[in-house]
Amino acid sequence: MVRYAEVALNLSWESETLVYEIPDNLKNLKAGMRVLVELNGVRKEGVVTEIHSNEPNYKTKPILKQIDFEEVVTKEQLDLAYWMKDKYLSSLGESLFLMVPKGRKIQKKKYEDTHIAIDKLHKLNPEQSLALSSIQKSEQHTHLLFGITGSGKTEVYIHLMYEVLSQESGTVIYLVPEISLTFPTIQRIEAIFPGQVAVLHSYLKTQERFQNYLDLLNGKKRICIGTRSAVFAPVRDLKLVIIDEEHDSSYKEHSSPRYHARQIAVKRIMDNKGKLVLGSATPSVEIFHLAKQGKVGLQKLSKRANIHSKLPEIIVKENESQLISGDLQFKIADRLKKKEQIIILLNRRGYNPFIYNKNTKEFVQCPNCSTTLCYHKESIVRCHLCGYRTNLQKIKNEIGQEIDLLGVGTQKLEETLLESFPQARIERLDQDSTKNKEITKQALEKLESGEIDILTGTQMISKGLDFANVTLVGIINANHGLGIPDFRSTERTYALLSQVSGRAGRAEKRGEVVLQSSDPSHPVIQMAMEQNYESYFDWEINFRKELGYPPFQRLVRLVFRSKMDDKAAKQAVAYSDLIRSHSKYDPKTISLLGPAPCSFFKIDSNFRYHILLKSNDISLVRDLLSNIKDFFKKDNNCYVEYDFDPLDLV
Ligand SMILES: [Zn+2]
Questions:
Q1: Does the residue 631 lie in any domain?
Q2: Which pLDDT value is given to residue 503?
């Protein structure tokens, strides 16, 4: 009897599986293994989801090769992929290929007996102990650990992990926004749970990453630490998921399936009857709203863990003509003299973010995007949306010499600091400097050992850094970000200002923050200065309620993109017409906005239009769209993005 395999390929347009014939020599093939197959003359990797003997009504091709000789996808992951397909209207294969890293099985590593180094656990303070026991005793599966910066959330996480690891079985997933900024914490966890930690991140070598994946799959290691996609780790009996800095936007995937790690974690925790702990000093508005309503547990840490540490004092200054105000210059000089360290944030990359054409009185735009080009050091000119690169000479050749370079980015800030403080040791961390993760790690080690006086950079440096000798934080152009036309722009700005301020004075020495803004009286700047998240939340939640934004209404965004403007526009109109005429569409329960051109109308030569759907009940929208999705007449030149609970609308 001929046997067939259902194979999921990493394709956006094939929502489920294709059937292939299993050759006689592949007797041991099982669901959950990867195979090599041919599709339209191209060889592709696929995941076998099922084996059966039902001949399909089309001519099948044989499987070319078996890649794995043991299952690399668990039953839970397979179920999760089906669930995601329905939840995010994505394809099965896209979800499965998010879960399994590339790579092949190599030789077995030797494993040593491990023990928990209980003597390395720190004793918790009364607030931490209360949070820990409340989470442990609670019936609720999800908890927000709302703790001010420096309040010692990590220690609570470690005690929760200890509880799981001291049992016979049970596993932990610990998610962080950025691995390279988390090395000190990872080292601490490895020291407490030796041999139990597998880190999954994208800059490990392929084989090493795959080996870590197998160690989790085979239960050799019980703690997985990683960024967003580590939420899919193939661990069994998942008892605890920790999402640190849960408000961070990196937890949302930006290509299909556009999942949020928190939603996946909730699903896995419910299925496994475990606990999910979300930690933040500036929780997302949605989660804090749920916590206030009692729908997720709320544990507060209101004091800094170091009893001698106080929250820093924040001074707000109006932007002056100089980049670094006289006051901030004076304070930097003072800290340098005292051999204390300084962090200066400017949330803008490059040297001069704007190139101004004096003849046309316009900013020079990227040829592929509706955004301006940014001038970087050494005459390089780049687009931050699509990565387009050129140089200043070429631009001058095209449009003439009449050019002004305007605005300030981190490269210019670094240079200005070097000019003002030639003796200081200065390092810069931003997306340009950290392509190589080793550089980030080294920079942080240097900050720790006192080999850096001033660390400067973009929002990267706001995340989780904990260095006792940093006593001054300067924020340049603090209001940057408030002007972005997006309903989350104040939430993001508040979190950024509050998080970076929290880097100051985490130990005995009192910290100070100088916040420079062109609009010092802006309510968000004022509230960040007071460091009172709850007053910010009360202000923001009213605005969300009035405008019907999350958490009061859920959003679904559809983006239509095409190299041809008219195709994208036509498809967007056709889709909205379909929605309006569909029997499941009721304007009383679902509001439809658009179609309209996106704020970033063109990205990477793709023209973009969007439709926004709002509802109290997202399942109504999901039901409507999954009905339309299959009979909507697609144009092969236009791609449709489905984004449930989008983080931005630009
Ligand atoms: Zn571009």
A1: yes
A2: 86
Enumerate residues 6+ apart whose C-beta is below 8 A from 113.
none
Residue 44 CA to ligand 1 center (angstroms) comes to 31
**pLDDT tens profile 180-208:** 778 888 999 999 999 999 999 877 888 88
Structural domain harbouring 161: 118-301
**What's the pLDDT score for residue 111?**
65
What per-residue confidence (pLDDT) applies to 178?
86
Give the chain's domain count.
5
Residue 137, Cβ density class (10 Å: 0-12 exposed, 13-18 middle, ≥19 buried): exposed
Q: Residue 108 has what pLDDT?
A: 60
Give the bridge partners for 318, in sequence order.
Answer: 517
Instruction: Report which DSSP code applies to 116.
Output: -
Ligand 1 centroid – CA 369 distance (Å): 4
Q: Map tokens 């899919």 to a residue.
A: 232
Q: Is 25 in a helix, a strand, or coil?
A: coil
Question: How confident is the model at residue 112, as a pLDDT?
Answer: 64
State in Å: Cα 634 to ligand 1 middle.
26
Ligand 1 centroid from CA 350, angstroms: 15
pLDDT of residue 638: 93
Exposure string over 97-133, b if 16+ CB within 10 A, otherwise e: bbbbbebeeeeeeeeeeeeeeeeeeeebbebbeebbe
Low-confidence ranges of the chain (pLDDT < 50): none
Cα 382 to ligand 1 centre (Å): 8
Domain co-membership, 438 together with 509: yes
**131: domain CATH number?**
3.40.50.300
Which ranges in 357-426 belong to alpha helices (H)? 392-399, 410-420
Please state the φ and ψ torsions of residue 260, each to the nearest 5 degrees: -110, 130
471 Cα: distance to centroid of ligand 1 (angstroms): 39
In this structure, the answer to whether residues 29 and 155 fall within a common structural domain is no
Centre of ligand 1 to C-alpha 605, Å, is 8
* Predicted local confidence at residue 334, as pLDDT: 96
Q: Give the C-alpha separation, 453 to 341, whole Å.
A: 5
170 and 66 in a single domain? The answer is no
Ligand 1 centroid–CA 2 distance in Å is: 52
Give residue 566 CA to ligand 1 midpoint distance, Å.
Answer: 20
Q: Measure 389 CA to ligand 1 centroid, in angstroms.
A: 9
Q: Quick one: 534 and 561 in the same domain?
A: no
pLDDT, position 309? 82
